[in-house]
Predict the 3D structure of the following.
Amino acid sequence: MGIIDKIKAIEEEMARTQKNKATEHHLGLLKGKLARYRQQLLADEAGSGGGGGSGFEVAKSGDARVVLIGYPSVGKSSLLGKITTTKSEIAHYAFTTLTSVPGVLKYQGAEIQIVDLPGIIYGASQGKGRGRQVVATARTADLVLMVLDATKSEHQRASLEKELENVGIRLNKEKPNIYYKKKETGGVKVTFTSPPKTNLTEQAIKMILRDYRIHNAEVLVRDDQCTIDDFIDVINEQHRNYVKCLYVYNKIDAVSLEEVDKLAREPNTVVMSCEMDLGLQDVVEEIWYQLNLSRVYTKKRGVRPVFDDPLVVRNNSTIGDLCHGIHRDFKDKFKYALVWGSSAKHSPQKCGLNHRIDDEDVVSLFAK
Ligand SMILES: Nc1nc2c(ncn2[C@@H]2O[C@H](COP(=O)(O)OP(=O)(O)OP(=O)(O)O)[C@@H](O)[C@H]2O)c(=O)[nH]1
């Protein structure tokens, strides 16, 4: 039986099985198997561009990557046209095999790369065609922008979410708070910091590990809300990505005010109309907010800081990250930094590599 058939068989069995106390462990086991087969299906994705690595630590010029996901004709091209410069000047992305047209959104001195993944995400989890590349690309995103058509049913959103869920992309979710380590010997040791309030029992954990042929491991569940699904995610950690998602409803000009109001109240959601030029600024601001980037202005000795060309780094970055962003080897030459701004105790503060910088700090770096 091919993997696709195996997946189908498990999905069918899951659909047939009634959900109750007596079956929850069996369902958990099936979910574990399903996760494994889905992974196999996507196994050669690593070599197909995008890579799925950490993507962006401190990217070259502070770029972040946003991927647009949506069904055809929801208005992705229109949105790209409105908020980006049409073509990327930077060609350091590896999606040449995709027909996506990356654009650059210039905002607050940052260059944010926006990649349109044409409506081919659909079917990716079934291993269809270029879907895998799309998935690999989506994995490297700092933010997923799900573009939805306000005039269409909620089905679009649910189906895209499910598609991403199936390939291991978790939207707006924290990593489960479970410590897990494979061991050489000693059997499986499971500890809960407080009794689980969900279906995640010691028995379930052991059963799933056995199915994965893992016979020695230490598991510490630190959150009583963790479920079997969370545990499966933890043991498949290399294939999971926790990505923020912003839901953007386009074409609000074509629905009633009540409907717009209802959509706009959903979490992580912005409403807009490309055609009427409504809400586009909100989309840009929300992208910026969700990316949670910091701007750092560099300053040479005796000269005013350069305020029009900040280095953009992830929020909570250190001077070390900043150095790495400037050049791979810069850290080795680093002597000290002078920092002005809200992260500094006094202005300027002399700091080392581990100092955490705030948004809009001014930094002078001194080399040996
Ligand atoms: N009523 C309305 N129509 C819109 C709006 N934005 C886009 N459209 C229309 O929706 C259609 C699709 O827009 P595109 O921007 O091409 O959509 P897309 O998602 O890029 O489509 P694909 O290229 O097929 O993936 C076009 O006919 C647009 O005129 C809007 O805000 N309101």
